[in-house]
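Possible regression after last week's pipeline update?

I re-ran a chain I had predicted before the update to compare outputs. Posting the input and the new output here so someone can diff against the archived version. Not blocking, just want to make sure nothing changed silently.
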Amino acid sequence: MQKTTAACRGSDRAVKFRSTPWVDWANYWATGDSSSKSRSLFNVGHLGPNGRGIDGALLDLEYQRIELIKFNLLDNSGTYRDYVNGDHGQSGRTLKVWPEMRLPEKHAYYDQVGGAGPQLCTGQLIRFRNLTGVCNDIRNPAMGSTGQLLARNVEFTSTFPDLGDDTLARNRHGDRIGPMKPDPQVISRRLFTRRQTHPELCEGKPTDSECDYVKAPFFNVLAAFWIQFMTHDWFSHLKDGHNDASAPPMSTGCRTTETGGSVRPLTPAEVKQLGCRPGDVIDPSMIADRTAPPRFTDSKGVPQLRRAYRTAPNEVTGWWDASQMYGFDEPSQRRAKQDPADAAKLLLVPVTEGSPSDRDFGYLPLLGPGDPQNPVWHGQEAVAFPDNYSAGISFFHNVFAREHDAFVKAFRARTARTPDDDCGLRNPDAPDRVIHYRDVTDEELFQIARLVVAAEIAKIHTIEWTTQLLYDEPLYLGMNANWHGLFEKDSLVSKATEKIVENELATSKDPTLNTELYSVFAAGAGIVGLGSHHYGTGAIFERFDPAKTDHWSLKNPSDVNGGVNHFGSPFNFPEEFVSVYRLHPLVPDVIEFRRLDAPNAIAEKIPVVATFRGDSTAQIRQKRLGNWALSMGRQRLGALTLENMPRFLQDLPLRQRIPTSPTHRIDVTALDLIRDREHGIPRFNEFRRQYGLRQLTSFDDFIDHRLEGDPRASNELARERRLVGILGDIYGQHHCDASKQITRAQRNDDGTPINDCLGHPDGSVVDNIEDVDLVVGMLSEFARPHGFAISETQFQVFILNASRRLFSDRFFTSSFRPEFYSRFGLDWVNDNGPDGKVWEKGTPNGHRMEVSPLKRILLRTIPELAGELDSVVNVFDPWARDRGEYYSLAWRPRKGAEADPAFGQGS
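New output (post-update):
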């Protein structure tokens, strides 16, 4: 960032912090709360200081996405050589079909898609979402399907640095790192454990529990369980609740510590003081391929790996398809039950007591003796992905099962009113036959409902969860642009940008046009619905009746599939994306349980661990879904920072998972570190370089220097300095060697290679910043943009993958049409329900806002929440918080919630 550009966008503040490792845009005008706004008299539109600040931030964010799309897509399935070198004269970044994404000969649909010849999905295979995720991309049937290899966002040579295969990795770390180096349980106990006033009282007793945690003021506990609900859909290394059960269990640490640069065993006294357990063991990760990766030479003569040193399968579909609810393979589908009395609905068991919504909808059934299940799931509700189940996960499963059935009921009501109307649905086997509402079968209606629910979930996550996770104006605009576009959806400029994407960029063989500019123009039109119209030459001028020129046809594979863009690399989630979703500090140790008849009182405190697995059933049903919504909606979640891990996760019972375990317990926070190391995640500093972020040169770089000189921040600065000292104790220092180059991902500002000294004099003692584990580094990022619940390192990974999972999915792009969703279903997704668009009162944060999709869903499925939700704008913002003016993070009660003890002294 040039000094003059920084001054233009953020004045002195943006200039002052240019030399820190952190992003510049966070210091621009109007990117924080009201105090970040310029008070200039000339502050008008895009040319005023505030407009320049916001626009500059959006430009920076778009440039980041362009760079990530260009450099960080590395597929593990064998396509990488063609991505680098191209194929038959075509740039690899514009390739759209890969032999590696064909269905194998033993697949049930092999002959149906073309067998040994060119494969193309047709007929019923393209109509709805398929169980295992095949045929989402009709020309690459296997892409994103269950069992496909997880991809990478980092150079293959940077993965698995502890193997020592890469010279630069050896230069970077020496012999200081390994699967158990530094010791994961020692890190957990010294850096992750919550510092609580009375830890002996943190036992979840109904009245006197005291489980302190650092709270995020603008994010609630619903948001913590939402993201777990999402990850159950996106990726999993587990197979029916197990990792590699065929291998002997492995240690999880509590064995060694570092003193004066050398590693030694922990003494019994140190083990006792730390509170860790040397006897803890766990099953190792499942690995698909441990063999040496094949190599090739790129067009510049540089040797390259064709894949990472080890690979692992994604045991669920990679698509945003609600597979955690509906299934991702045959056993999971058997757990996800359709109503035997009404095949269009999910099975919900009626109840005779409770709220009206409980009686109207009921609850999910329990797993039965004939259901495929791990013994530890006994007593849980029957869902496709039942692992790591809790009351919070049960809440969202029940809500969306109710939403599925509510959609079915509303669709049938629409059918009853006008049975002979064209519903918009079409059968690919008879694409010209009109399907009237009365013609829709129960199975078709079930599949439409699944499409609608999956799209609602994706919309909630994009424009509701993420905009509260990243609570500032640039991200509000940016995330809404992902879904709706920067411009009004039916405006002339939106139509124009959509036409440019469709007619010029999507078909171009120029990688700059097909990838980088495609991403830019998609921000104008919005990713959702890209390619869902095929306009003639005059379409942008006929926006009041676009059907006259819309030539999209279900008969044309290029129309059905034409809106997707994989940017030259087949879609699947990368291992790095899995790692940045290690968000355990979000969860409190206890739920402050409230009841709707007295919302300002905490009725009892329920240990989260007491709501796990089968215990979740009684908790949800006896205490009622509405009360759980209120309780999780009002309570703040934990901040993502050091010393804020739930204590129960450091002492979690394993039950029957490892029968031979001496302790039958596990420290999940230590396991986060172990799994990252097993999956070959680069350590923190190299991880940042791989994503185009600035490196750190010492542990002190973690400190948020923006706080210096502010007397109100003295306690926080002292905390950060103390924690940086512990980082030094754990990871240590060494005498650097300037002759050792340590990375190929970036260079110094003067163009020279980055070496072991990181800018310090040769031979000086430097911090082992290169050895810091990714999770530790992310939690140590104390300097963050305003309203960011996550670190900027995590956010960089989100920028790429959050948009890519929309770009790559035809059901969100070219197949986001009535032929698949029905007209009723498409309107339901676009309008957040069956009653048309509904608007919030006023202009929250300066915007006219629709009532959010999750708020509408809660009002449909738990209508007794209406009074509590009346003043709620974003369901993931604590429900009793006064949002105040422009992106305020203040913790103040809204009117009527003044008596809530959450706002008491010390809150």
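Follow-up from reviewer: compared with the archived run. The chain has 28 helices and 16 strands. Marking as no regression found.
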